[in-house]
Amino acid sequence: MKVVGLITEYNPFHNGHLYHIKKAREITGADAVLVLMSGNFVQRGAPAVMPKHLRTEIALGAGVPVILELPVCFAVGSAEYFAAGAISLFEKLGCIDAICFGSECGDLEILTRIAHAAADEPEEYCLALKDALRKGFSFPRARQAALGSYLNDDRIDAVIEQPNNILGIEYIKALYQKKSPIKIYTIKRIVSGYHDEHLSCEGYSSASAIRKLLAYTGSSLHLEAEGLFDEPALSEVLTRLENQVPPSCIRLLEEMHRSRYPVYANDFSLLFKYKLLTETADSLMRYMDVTEELANRIIRHANDFVSFDQFCDLLKTRDVTHTRISRCLFHILLGITADNMQEYRDEGFCQYARILGFRKDSTHLLSFLKHHSGIPLLTKLTQTNGLSSTGLKMLKQDIFAANLYESVITNKFKIPFINEYWQQVVKI
Fold this sequence. Notes:
Layout (H helix, E strand, L loop, with lengths): L2 E6 L6 H14 L3 E7 L2 E2 L3 E2 L4 H10 L4 E5 L1 H4 L3 H15 L4 E6 L4 H13 L2 H12 L4 H13 L4 H5 L2 H15 L5 E6 L18 H9 L4 H6 L8 H8 L5 H10 L12 H9 L3 H4 L7 H9 L7 H8 L6 H13 L3 H9 L6 E6 L4 H10 L4 E2 L10 H25 L12 E2 L1
Helix pairs in contact: 4-9, 5-7, 5-9, 6-7, 17-18
């Protein structure tokens, strides 16, 4: 059986994702598609707009066969860690023949050239990087300048500025460093860009645009923060989404509205304020990506904290974006330290593959996975006998993150708490 792996967030699932699945099978000739999805927190440094089990149910309803969860330490990591975690999981499954990712440029050749240069770090590139850093450039800008100089290609700047291109480069780099036999394919994003905030009349809107529309149905606090005071009826919002998402998504959006979603970063404000009260500048530097400068800024502005998004805006600088700040703050809230990530790197990144859901007509794919996998496949959180101490630590962070997210849902929508140990694999 030939299997193509897709690395996703489905935040939320939309027609572009259906296109991705169809094209991935078409261009790779795969017999089956296996999806690896972020859990309740996503790479841009934010909570998913709806919980992972709901996003799983929507995707399965749209035809996705099997969905695995990317551990939270990688799901909220930088592009490098996000990609390294995902690729390591696919490698260890032992049965993934190819990956296929979306990119803004759709040009695998230039993405590969950039990835190999970043991985090999040739002397000319390193000298250009050091020169850019000496000039005061942030590391991302310095790397961008160094790659442009080394590769002598005017397209480099435009390519590296796009988020899906960046992730694609990191996927290629991770596979290249592992000397992996997994083949690489990319498809060009169609119609809407990653950050587009307006619905496309062609039915291929970005997740950003759909999340923005769903914000109209959010809490009064979020509406006020977004400057939205006249909230339309849910039926009006869903009507506008009918040609943007599969029917299974519309049904669950209606059924679960204000009982399981929507969730925003500001819903974690009070939790983060509490966490902030327990930290010092020195202790903050334990967490992944938190520099001494950022730690001092956080403590210096602690008394100015009003809400999560407001605090990110307060902390951002010319060289450090809102997204980077938000990712750091969620590392703090979720307790993901630099030592954790170093241990995971040293131990080969992903230690298990947790199954979030599957279609009943895809049990043959599950059997195929179980036969080939070199890491434990988890369907129950009590199945931990085969895990190393590093794997147990990683899984505990997943459980904590899920329970924290569930606590926010419980408080926001006044529903009973569902402990992560009670969550069932989604089957349809």
